[in-house]
Amino acid sequence: MAGRILVVEDDERLAEFVCRGFSEQGYTVDRAADGRDGLFHATDRSYDAMVLDRMLPGMDGLAVLKAIRAGGVTTPVIVLSALGDTDARIDGLNSGADDYLAKPFSFAELLARVQALQRRGGGEAQATTAILRCADLEMDRLARVVRRGGRKVQLQPREFRLLEYLLLHSGEVVTRTMLLEAVWDYHFDPGTNVIDVHISRLRRKIDDGEAQPLLQTVRGAGYRLAAD
Hints:
This protein is about 40% helix and about 20% strand. The chain folds into two domains: about 5-125, 3-Layer(aba) Sandwich (Rossmann fold); about 130-225, Arc Repressor Mutant, subunit A (Orthogonal Bundle), CATH 1.10.10.10. The chain starts with a strand and ends with a strand. It is an alpha/beta fold. The chain is built from eight helices and eleven strands. The strands form three sheets. The chain has a five-stranded parallel β-sheet, with helices on both faces. Strands 6-7-8-9 form a four-stranded antiparallel β-sheet, covered by helices on one side. The chain has a two-stranded antiparallel ribbon with strand order 10-11.
């Protein structure tokens, strides 16, 4: 996956640790040590993701976030903060953050969350494609209509979102973790069978009575929507 990432963090040791971790994962990393420099970088070039500390000298992290969103910058942003209570998280998300991670944190979790944002952003990048297809299954994303072989399929909102994600990744194996993050916005395992229930319902609606099943379970890996 990798790509170019911007890290805006004034703590020298933490910034060095995070930047080195992303570099080792193949990312090209730019770093800013204060809010104003971070704002300059974020609006000066394109990034695949941005890691933004909340409490910065020069310009507060949330002020930076509001400024770049007001300027039309859509780069996925994860906010880092020592403030981990619910109100602080809500403030961060309402300011335009895509995710919020409280300090202290493990780099492995930060990396996983950044990669999740990149996957989600990849799906959004394909949002200009109004019609998605797999064999005779067709989704009109603008009209929010699904048909299988001309037959209209009635889906609940979550089922629609699940099928949309599977269609965007048609032919690929998508894991349970990918589905939890992209469809349910969970960054943890809720310990329930929510995915199994929705996959089962979706399979009945699009595959029952059809000669060619499309929604496949890949044992030990996840699920795949494919015509083969």
